[in-house]
Design brief:
Layout lengths: L2 E5 L2 E3 L5 E8 L8 E6 L6 E6 L6 E3 L7 E6 L4 E6 L8 E7 L9 E5 L2
Length: 114
């Protein structure tokens, strides 16, 4: 059974940083491109970042370019999202998924507020 479990969310002030983690099990993690998505209250889910299976390529939404960094450790079956210079507009539930969208975690809440 495939499981993706996100962690690292929380409440931070504007300008602060958080690192999200997504631990995968039940799949050959190194075979999969992986993605982070987010869904803000009252808005549709959006793709934030994705990374190729070997980490060789990353892509970002324009709204997070230069502030967020996606990375992975295939030895640990984990994908990360380093979020810097957080803004209130980044408040959302953050989900990791396989990039083919077949597998999803349950999400972790990030709240950016003063």
């Amino acid at each position: 059974q495939v499981q993706l479990v996100e962690s690292g969310g929380g409440l931070v002030q504007p300008g602060e940083s958080l690192r999200l983690s997504c631990a995968a099990s039940g799949l050959t993690f190194s075979y999969y491109d992986m993605s982070w998505h987010r869904q803000a209250p009252g808005k549709e889910r959006e793709l934030v970042a994705r990374i190729r299976w070997n980490g060789g390529r990353t892509d970002y939404a324009d709204s997070v370019k230069g502030r967020f960094t996606i990375s992975r450790d295939n030895a640990k079956n984990t994908v990360y999202l380093q979020m810097n210079s957080l803004e209130p507009e980044d408040t959302a539930v953050y989900y990791c998924s396989s990039s083919d969208l077949n597998y999803w975690g349950k999400g972790t809440l990030v709240t950016v507020s003063s």
